[in-house]
Design goal:
Two copies of one chain form a homodimer.
Chain A lengths: L4 H14 L1 E4 L2 E5 L15 E2 H13 L3 H14 L19 E7 L2 E7 L11 H18 L3 H4 L1 H15 L29 H17 L6 H21 L1 E3 H8 L23 H7 L5 E3 L2 E3 L2 E3 L2 E2 H9 L5 H13 L1 H4 L8 E2 L4 H8 L20 H10 L3 H12 L11 E2 L5 E2 L8 H15 L10
Antiparallel strand pairs in A: 1-2, 3-4, 4-5, 6-7, 8-9, 10-11, 12-13
Helix pairs in contact in A: 1-17, 2-4, 2-17, 3-4, 4-7, 6-7, 7-8, 7-11, 11-12, 11-15, 15-16, 15-17, 16-17
């Protein structure tokens, strides 16, 4: 039995409302999942990156209080002291998640900066998403006053200092450990993964809008310097289309000195050039997944590419090419559930070596070629922005035929995305919110400025 | 025709002296190689890490001026300004190398921080080696005055600030990109490679000795805090012996929360447990090559393990176990030329995926299972320190039967190290200096405090 669209939305909203987390009587976030059939583990927490889709939806629906509360409580959890002690979270970080703990009748918040997480992964993306959400709140309210409060100015500044501090390498990108973003397990995204770079770029732009220049001259100058360098670096060195592939294919290697063309000393046979020769549409292209010494990860990662379109990190032509690629390779990238988090999956030895034999990330499952409905809102936003609205519409049509019936699972498996994820929770909040948000963005493109610049 | 030992040393000294680089009339370092038969490329430069063996030898021979000059000129090349601009080297870094350039009759020094290097790799180890060398100079002269000069105090402080600054992750180790040390090509040592961590540990200890506390209270406190954390972290989590392997082999995975035993969520089948079960001697053990989410690199890296013995990062028992392993697996790790830089080599798909198809690092060549004579001085130092002097003696005997005859090549290839490296230069300075230094350390263990604590 297929629900009609009205009932579907109603059910989704009910499920979303059930997931709202309260702290001292006020709504402060949403739980990762509201699945009563299994043990909570860490799904009873509010994850910063998960809350983004709920938050944008709440802003659209003029339920701004929960977003404001969220921004305030997470800001309070941000370490403010200079921290030369490494076993504590660094100054400026925003936690991966937090939960409400009851102790002797008193509620308090417990943050997790990765010290509880499986494999102790570092939530680098949290502070970047937090900035994007703060900006969305300001845009929704058309009022800068929250951001101009001294504690928010300090919070923004600390995030920028953490990201802009002197490090060892000389790239404009951020160096991070594996699993530092939505893909929070080992997946070969150690180093300079696209997702982090794109969120970093957007966060720099958000901070530039929100920071009061007076007193922050050094940071503002650094942002102004970094933005164009980062942008050029990503557009030039991460870009893959048939022309670029041909250039790489014919690269000389072992070039020493300032005039080197093959800057990162990529060996063409480290790329699946024969596969890409077939797979790349004439006019399509995308940003590769990672870049380092002798490394260009040619996998397609959706979040990075879609957010690059949304944030203008991709040029106008590149944005069109990314959407063309998605259109032309729809069966691979969307199939029966929007949309693949990465493509293609790592298989065989490559799976074994790159993931460290992670049984959750077997080929075409979870992060390794699985399909994540939450990505739909980004797909829709990118399609609206590039005037390819049909793609967004099609994605929603495909998803709404299944999501509610399948009880809003976190992810789907298989090459076409027809299997409910092997270990997926049901009633996953960002699946629900992502779907509703996608519909809102499609119906009313005037909401786009919440996440576009 | 075999040279007698006296002639051999004489020839080595002559070759070493030819490699000395002069700047404004003073010796300031040694060229990487003095091989007139091939184009210089970047072998006409003084590499900081390469100069270490020459420098220690010069200190032993009471030729301290060249070392002092080297320390002074490289210190001048260290960027001192706060650098929010990422395309310039960060404050505190010491270059990978420098060369003397002549322009309109004027000599000046040109530094390379990786911007000229193949694949643009970052020389993180340079600033750590520089500190170790400064300390060796102080020990040799029995006089702290050079280190107490204000510009040296500033240099030390800047290196410490660069290393101790707040970063994203919460490990006591340093996060670095691939190829940031002696292995300066992609070799799967992105993240938290052993070599960098050991040099970091030794550099922290050196800085602690050399920094004047007054005015540096914050740094000194941070060092005092970091040292035991780093030490415990490496000793616990990088250590591999048969007992530890058995623990890992039976690890539960996917543990969430503070009580997790398998902190890094290592899957046992990501390790070659069946090979290690055979290879690990009963009493031997070693520190693994890298550690991250779902990753424990079980390759043996010589520099990291030997420097861990030398610097006391390995416990007394672990140091003995490392030397026992080398003794018991002599054919694998030393064979016909001391000694393998890494063991075993990455082969087949693993080679292809992890190195990015690097033709210089094919299995059992160069960094990927090749043999590097320069490592001999560390092997000898570690064998003297652990009272396994016979191992050092045997290594020197093996090397001196070939090195001079083969014209002091940079490295050897093959499983036993009997092939002169495919692309090895001859008259490689650190091969020559490493050999002479090894002999000195063996003959006169009283020189050990130059590099021990």
């Amino acid at each position: 039995m297929q629900l009609d669209k009205k009932d579907l939305e109603k059910q989704a909203w009910e499920a979303l409302e059930k997931s709202i987390l309260h702290y001292k009587g006020n709504p402060v976030g949403t739980l990762a999942a509201y699945d009563v059939s299994v043990e909570a583990l860490n799904y009873d927490q509010c994850f910063v990156r998960d809350f983004v889709s709920s938050a944008l939806l709440f802003l659209i629906k003029d339920k701004t209080d929960i977003v404001r509360n969220f921004l305030e409580v997470t800001l309070k959890l941000q370490p403010k002291e200079r921290q030369l002690d490494t076993c504590k979270p660094g100054r400026g970080l925003i936690p991966a998640s937090f939960k409400v703990v009851l102790d002797q009748g008193q509620e308090y918040l417990e943050a997790d900066f990765g010290e509880h997480a499986i494999a102790r992964v570092t939530p680098v993306d949290s502070c970047l998403w937090w900035l994007l959400l703060l900006r969305a709140y300001i845009v929704a309210k058309k009022d800068f006053s929250l951001a101009y409060q001294p504690e928010f100015q300090e919070g923004i500044r600390l995030i920028m200092e953490l990201c802009l501090v002197t490090r060892f390498d000389m790239y404009p990108t951020l160096l991070v450990p594996d699993g530092a973003c939505m893909i929070d397990r080992r997946m070969g995204i150690s180093g300079h993964p696209l997702e982090i770079q794109v969120l970093f770029y957007a966060a720099l732009r958000a901070a530039r809008e929100l920071l009061i220049c007076r007193g922050n001259e050094d940071i503002v100058e650094a942002i102004d310097h970094r933005l164009p360098l980062l942008c050029t670096h990503i557009r030039q060195h991460y870009w893959i289309d048939i022309h670029r592939l041909n250039t790489i294919y014919r690269f000389k290697s072992e070039e020493y000195g300032k005039d080197a063309v093959n800057l990162f000393n990529i060996y063409a046979n480290s790329l699946p050039y024969d596969q890409l020769d077939k797979w790349l549409p004439k006019k399509g292209g995308y940003l590769g997944g990672n870049l380092g010494p002798s490394q260009l990860d040619s996998r397609f990662f959706s979040l990075g590419n879609l957010m690059a379109v949304i944030s203008d990190l991709a040029s106008v032509e590149q944005s069109q090419a990314i959407m063309t690629l998605i259109e032309e390779r729809w069966e691979d990238l969307v199939g029966d559930m929007p949309m693949k988090i990465s493509f293609p999956a790592l298989e065989n030895e490559e799976y074994r070596i790159v993931t460290g034999c992670d049984p959750k990330n077997i080929p075409w499952s979870y992060h390794n070629g699985g399909s994540w409905p939450v990505l739909m809102w980004m797909l829709v936003a990118a399609s609206v922005k590039t005037k390819k609205i049909d793609l967004g519409k099609r994605a929603i049509e495909i998803a709404q035929a299944r999501l509610c019936e399948d009880k809003w699972p976190e992810y789907y498996d298989g090459k076409k995305g027809r299997l409910i994820g092997k270990q997926a929770r049901t009633y996953q909040t960002w699946t629900i919110a992502g779907f509703l948000l996608a519909k809102e963005l499609l119906q009313n493109p005037s909401h786009l400025p919440l996440i576009c610049f």
